[in-house]
């Protein structure tokens, strides 16, 4: 097992090697597989990227973040202006049915609400807003309401996960009950755990995913 210092250094290096991030902006501390982030960033996209690169580090089992979005005064915009740019961003992505999404903006913080048919649409709605300058944060309260009521086959979910090359060498078991899928077993990284959940969620007919996968980086080393 990696000790706290080794894990901290690995996460720091992952951040340092990312061209979007400046490692001097981000404090990193590790304890028993949990990584703590502190610092001040100037856009939401950087916060999202910190999460992504940290989850890819073997040995990370959880993140605790205290990253603050704080930008120069010249970047500040009115809520009305941010609302306008949010709506334009949503309309520019063909995969997002923006007429199903309600947008609220208060103090440069955006809240998304509504009902969509697919989880990938919910994720795309947030991703479309990450690069908006002057945005302090996003709360995604969009719900998934699947209209397909046919019985789900366990094989559908297994195929969706198995077809991804990113899920090689994982030991994942699928249980389907109605429109709910439960995932159990072992994966090599936290990133794989989230990918498995996303793949299952995007399977036709899925409303809910219970992700009980265990992250075991030692399992990954044994299978190399």
Describe the structure.
Helix 5 (154-162) crosses helix 6. The protein starts with a helix and ends with a helix. The longest helix has 14 residues, at 79-92. It has helices spanning 4-16, 44-55, 79-92, 119-127, 154-162, 190-201, 217-222; strands at 26-31, 34-41, 62-69, 101-106, 109-116, 137-144, 171-177, 180-187, 208-211, 214-215. The chain is of the alpha/beta class and 224 residues long. It contains seven helices and ten strands. 33% of the residues lie in helices and 29% in strands. It has three domains: 4-69, Histidine-containing Protein, Chain: A, CATH 3.30.1340.30; 74-144, Histidine-containing Protein, Chain: A (2-Layer Sandwich); 154-222, Histidine-containing Protein, Chain: A (2-Layer Sandwich), CATH 3.30.1340. Strands 7, 8, 9 and 10 form a four-stranded mixed β-sheet that branches. Strands 1-2-3 form a three-stranded mixed β-sheet. Strands 4-5-6 form a three-stranded mixed β-sheet.
């Amino acid at each position: 097992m990696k000790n706290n210092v080794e894990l901290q250094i690995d996460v720091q290096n992952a951040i340092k090697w990312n061209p979007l991030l400046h490692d001097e902006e981000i404090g990193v501390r590790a304890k028993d597989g949990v990584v703590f982030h502190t610092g001040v960033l100037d856009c939401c996209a950087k916060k999202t990227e910190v999460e992504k690169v940290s989850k890819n580090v073997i040995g990370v089992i959880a993140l605790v973040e205290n990253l603050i979005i704080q930008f120069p005064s010249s970047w500040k915009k009115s809520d009305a202006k941010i609302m306008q740019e949010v709506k334009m961003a949503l309309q520019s992505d063909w995969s997002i049915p923006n007429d199903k999404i309600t947008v609220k903006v208060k103090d440069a913080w955006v809240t998304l609400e509504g009902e969509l048919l697919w989880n990938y649409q919910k994720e795309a709605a947030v991703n479309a807003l990450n690069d908006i300058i002057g945005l302090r944060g996003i709360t995604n309260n969009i719900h998934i309401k699947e209209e397909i009521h046919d019985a789900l086959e366990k094989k559908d979910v297994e195929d969706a996960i198995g077809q991804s090359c990113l899920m090689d060498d994982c030991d994942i078991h699928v249980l389907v009950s109605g429109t709910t899928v439960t995932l159990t077993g072992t994966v090599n990284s936290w990133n794989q755990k989230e990918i498995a959940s996303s793949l299952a969620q995007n399977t036709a007919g899925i409303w809910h995913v219970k992700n009980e996968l265990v992250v075991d980086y030692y399992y990954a080393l044994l299978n190399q």
